[in-house]
Design goal:
Length: about 300
């Protein structure tokens, strides 16, 4: 995989301290030529900063890559880091089917050709009441859906993760009903905050975070961010989603971050920022994870206690 945006090898990892320095350098430099003079890898610069970023301080690369949920590799937070490096992510294709004008198998290299990659620092809120701040690199899901040509009648997008038990040890056990599945309403999918991420911290997506392509929907609980996507289907009816299938009482289709609607077994009113000092206070969770201004309108007139 060469020269495609943020698809750098994970072995090229840049320590985050260097990344912060690099951000300063990039701010001072003008484009790839200047970056070349500074001896920086040009591929890492093939994205631009986005106005959508939050002002929060990002978590460390080490937090982001060692405390993960990716049940295909096991249920322990350390399992993805332990086992996901064995996953082959090149070549990779995404099947786009259903109600689209141009269905088919889209090679990731083709998807990334001409796709404007942006760095977006987003808050990430897990349903387990912890949070992180992550500098994703990605592109709007809407851009890809527009390429495929959404047909009238499509009202939802259904997503599926790769099934490859040879490389995904968790899939050799019936932990979940594989493949991992997720879904969005079409207006949520087309919203400019919704991205398909191909990297973070200026480098290719670490396998444990969902390489090579994962969804990021910053106003929803983390489990909506399906990893290692191989299929996207444009459909008429609300699709079944993994956690709703497992336990519909605890996990709804919408899964919007909402401090007023508790999980049946714990409160969603506050959150613990991973990496923060043990003595630092939990912080209040914000409606729609702090993105209410942008997305509250999508849910006007809905009872969010019933459609959670
Ligand atoms: N395919 C797949 N995607 C997944 C999961 C999973 O188990 N399998 N876990 C989800 C959950 S519960 C969370 S909190 C986030 C975690 O993303 P991160 O490890 O990059 O922080 O991924 C989500 N996407
Ligand atoms: Mo989660």
């Amino acid at each position: 995989m060469n020269g495609q945006g943020a698809r750098l090898r994970y072995s090229d990892v840049t320590p985050e301290r260097l990344w912060f320095d690099r951000r300063r350098l990039i701010a001072a430099a003008t484009g790839a030529a200047a970056a070349g003079l500074l001896g920086l890898p040009a591929r890492a610069l093939e994205y631009r900063k986005s106005g959508y970023s939050t002002g929060d301080e990002p978590n460390s690369l080490s937090d982001i890559t060692s405390y993960n949920n990716f049940y295909e590799f096991g249920t322990d937070k350390g399992d993805p880091k332990r086992y996901a490096h064995r996953l082959t992510t090149d070549p990779w294709s995404v099947e786009i089917d259903g109600l689209v004008a141009r269905p088919g198998s889209y090679p990731l290299d083709d998807i990334l050709k001409g796709m404007p990659l942006e760095e977006r620092i987003y808050r990430f809120r897990c349903v387990e009441a912890w949070s992180m701040v992550i500098p994703w690199i990605g592109f709007p899901l809407a851009s890809l859906l527009e390429r495929a040509g959404v047909e009238p009648g499509a009202r939802y997008v259904a997503f599926e993760t790769l099934v490859r038990p040879e490389e995904m040890p968790g899939q050799r056990q019936p932990i979940l009903d594989w493949p991992y599945r997720e879904g969005l309403r079409l207006d949520e999918a087309m919203h400019p905050l919704t991205i398909l991420a191909t990297g973070l911290y200026g480098q290719e997506m670490p396998n444990q975070n969902g390489a090579p392509l994962r969804l990021v929907v910053p106003w929803k609980y983390g489990f909506k961010s399906i990893k290692s996507i191989v299929r996207m289907s444009l459909v008429e009816k609300q699709p079944p989603t993994t956690w709703e299938m497992e336990n519909p009482r605890e996990y709804g289709f919408y899964s919007n971050v909402n401090p007023q609607v508790d999980h049946p077994r714990w409160s969603q009113a506050t959150e613990r920022r991973i990496g923060a000092s043990l003595f630092s206070a939990r912080q209040p969770t914000l409606m729609f994870n702090g993105y209410a201004e942008e997305v509250a309108g999508l849910y006007a007139g809905m009872d969010l206690k019933k459609q959670f």
